Amino acid sequence: MDDFFVKKKKKSLVGLQLAPLIDIFVLIIIFLIKGTVMSGASITPPAELSPAKSKSPEGLEPAGQIYLTRGQIVFPMINEQISTDIFLAEFAKVNASQSSDLLQSLSSKLKKAIADIPENEKKSGILLNFLADAGVDYKTTFELSKFCRQIGFQNILFVAQGEK
Amino acid sequence: MAGGGAGDGRSPRIDLVPIIDAMTCVIFFLLLSSTFVEFTKITMPSAVSAVATTVSEKSTPPLSPKMFGLVKDQNIQLILSWEGETPGHLQTIVARHPDNSRSQELQLATQGLAEDFKKKFPQENTLQLGLSAAATYQEMISAMDGARLKFSDLVMVSWNDESLFTSLVKE
User: Which one, A40, B10, B46, B139, has least CB within 10 Å?
Assistant: First the structure.
């Protein structure tokens, strides 16, 4: 009886094992996603600002920003800008224990912006990227840094353009 | 065949490859999502009363080194002064760059002063740094670049301190 039926030869199919292939691809994709460094830190200064040069190898930290051109102070965090001369005059008042409505308003807006920063981004302190024009004087730089410190920025990172 | 076996009398064969792959995935996810909790052990001292005598050590006054860049026409006079038991100061003069370009000379001069100070006081890691009101942001960055190579912490000093250093130079 057995001899009556001709046994069919099993076809040896060269099959591609998809399951392990997909698993390995999933692993690779996860590794790539986790390994990607999201720099997140970029600065787009005003066109009239020509940044200072530095040979420091340190990179940019993701943080709030402030731009100081030769005539203007720009706060991109709150979409505000103020003339340097007006700021210095108003800040001199504050230093002399007088009140300044303009700086009070700026201060409250910046404090609100600081409060809105997620807690996990405040782990290494409340940082501020400070980018100024190469020709801005030290007095303005110092006074503006002092103002920022009074608002609540704990670390001020002075930004310059890398030079080889 | 209904039992899921091979049907030819042999024991059922389990395909191990996808299981190992799935397990690798699971372990990988567990490793990534695990948080490393550090348990702290606090050992309390036993409640025993004792008499302790304190010996007051001779406290040395802090050095508080300050570096200041005095702008004088087309030059910057760098002064590094310190206090402590043996107060003193170092100074050098560097020409300014009129076009606000990066000054390698200023960076090297700052670095040189910092190095000389660190040879005397290697334990000091904080430097207060300031410039005249008329100095530029570029000059501040160049000075910081030089000082950062020797001091881990830099603290800004007000331009108002210029008068202190002017009198120091006159001495």
Answer: B46
